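Just scan my protein:

. . .
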Amino acid sequence: MFRGQFIHKISQTGRVSIPSKFRDNLKLKHKTSSLILSSFENSLICYPLPEWEKLESKISSLPQFKKDTVEFERYLIGNAHESEIDNEGRIMIPSILRKHFKISNSAVFVGMLSRFEIWSEKGWSKNLTSSFKKFQKSREVIDGI
């Protein structure tokens, strides 16, 4: 599982080190060094390749010509990029994604159980304020599960 928050510097070429706990999880649980990065709301979402393949399988079963499905696929699948972890534990974040999410000097990694997100520091800081308020409301709903 991916848990916690980590801030890592990003190179001018877009390379950033994956947190060591996340790399360990990828090796032990998923047995892969391949990630899929895509756009999701205000951040990048990163799936280990086996988890991404499960998601693609679910998406493939949706009605192919339904407008909502097409728009969902266009955004999530159309922005998907495969990234391999190099020998130094880094991935390359494509420039189109770095530019869109304004990820330049550093990146914030946020664990999300089977996946993780990558945020710009400014975007993450802004998100924390609204997320806490939403957390307060949603915890009562989740408690009823």
